Amino acid sequence: MLAALSPERRLELRLCSADEVQAQLLGGRVDVGVSYRPLLAPGLESTVLAEEALALVGPPDSRPPPPEEVGALSFVTYEEFEYVFLQWFAHHGLPLPQQWRRGDHYEELEEVLAAVSQGRGWSIVPADAARAPASGARLHCRPPSSPPCANPVHLITRTGELKSADARWLRTLF
Fold first, then answer.
1. Which side of the chain, N or C, has fewer Cβ within a 10 Å radius?
2. Which pLDDT does position 48 carry in this prediction?
3. Rounded CA gap, 59 and 74, in Å?
4. Which residues contact 10 (CB under 8 A, 6 or more apart)?
C-alpha cells in the first residue's frame, strides 16, 4: 500500500475510535477517515471502501468450540471490539452473551493476535490479519463460514469531499 505513495506526498496515520475519527473530520484536523461504521452525521458522508472477512481465532492448540459454546469463551478484546463481535455473532445467528467474558484488552490488533497465540483467550478479528505471517502469531483460525462474515470498511470525508484526491487515492489501494 505505501509503495503506491510518492515520497513527496505527506501521510499521517492516526489510529483512534470511530467517535474520534468523526470529531477529527468535523474539526478539520484530518481530511479522510476510515471506520467500520459509516459515521452518519451532519457534515459527513461515507462510502464502502472495502470488505474484510471476520474470523474467530483461538490459541494454536485449541479446537473450535461448537457454536452454542462460543458465547461462553474468554475473549481478548480491543478498541471498539463490540461492533466487530456483534457483526460476527449476528452473521452466525448466535445469541449474544449476557455478559462478555473479557480477559485481556488492547488498543492494537497486533497485541490481540499475540495474546491469543499465547493462549490468553479467543477473539474475532479480520481473517487476513489472523493469517498474515507478519503478525508473528500462531493462531487457530476457525474455518470461515460460507458465505464468510463480511465486514464493510467505510471511507468517510466531510460532505462533498468523497471525490477529493486523497479519497480517490485511498480507493485505488483497495
1. N
2. 94
3. 11
4. none
- What are the CA-CA distances from residue 124 to residues 49, 61, 91, 129, 166 (Å)? 21, 17, 12, 11, 30
Question: What is the separation, in whole angstroms, between the first and last Cα of the chain?
Answer: 9
- pTM, 2 dp: 0.79
Half-sphere exposure of 44 (CA within 13 A, CB side): 27
Please write the tens of the pLDDT for every residue from 114-161.
Answer: 999 899 999 999 988 887 765 555 666 665 566 789 989 999 999 999
What residues contact 15, with CB distance under 8 A and at least 6 apart? Answer: 107, 108
Residue 46 has which C-alpha cell? 461515507
Q: Which residues of the chain have pLDDT under 50?
A: none
Q: State in words which class domain 2-51+152-173 has.
A: alpha beta
What span, in angstroms and rounded, lies between the C-alpha atoms of 142 and 132? 15
The pairing of strands 74-78 and 101-106 is parallel
Q: Would you state the CATH architecture of domain 52-150?
A: 3-Layer(aba) Sandwich (3.40)
